[in-house]
Amino acid sequence: MPMQDQKAPSRLFQLCSCAREPAAGFVEVFDEPRHYHRFQNDYVRVYDVRFGPGETSLYHRHNIDTMYVTVNDAEVYDHTFQSDASTGKTHHLTAGLSMCRPHGGDPLIHKVRNDGDGLMHMIGAEVLKLPELVSDKPLSAPCHTQLDNLSGAERLRFYRIALEPGETTGEITYGFSGLTVSISDANIAVAEPGGTSRVVSFSPGSHIWHDGPVTQMLTNVGETAFVAILGEWC
Asked: Do domains 27-127 and 144-233 have the same CATH topology?
């Protein structure tokens, strides 16, 4: 899992909790009050989605290809704008579910509701463009498992990273840029060539963008398993 510090500064957006849908009947995703925008650079815009039980979003539009990662198990009702009420569906989303939906070619306007008993928590990352450096083949590395492409969008590859306490990846070179989203609480030591090392503490939903290429070794120095999803911009 690439752990290089993000080079672009974070951009925080102040969202009004009293926002209402405009005359068009929907807002852009970055104006939806429960989609909390975290940072943006040339390649990605990341937002954090949190809904308490029973909470419902405004109708909002997605029109850029977007990486999604479900942070915890959730029951989510989804209704498409201007469709019959009977067409709404409730989906069971499991923690770690990841995909890239092709909203650039197939925009989506919808609203969602948390039909579960706990917090609904997801991370969304809009794919603004690809870096000049991309890898022509998938990553093959210890503790990294490539995941199936669930949505059909070819903009990203996904990997599940899993490290038990005391487990290490050995040295890995990531020849691409991407976003890592944690699904668990964990403390990870990140060692770079030359002996430099630091410990990064993760919580569910925390995320790090890295600019490739980067070479690192990851070791779980905590007492809990580390599980994360890595999205490769390809």
From this structure: yes
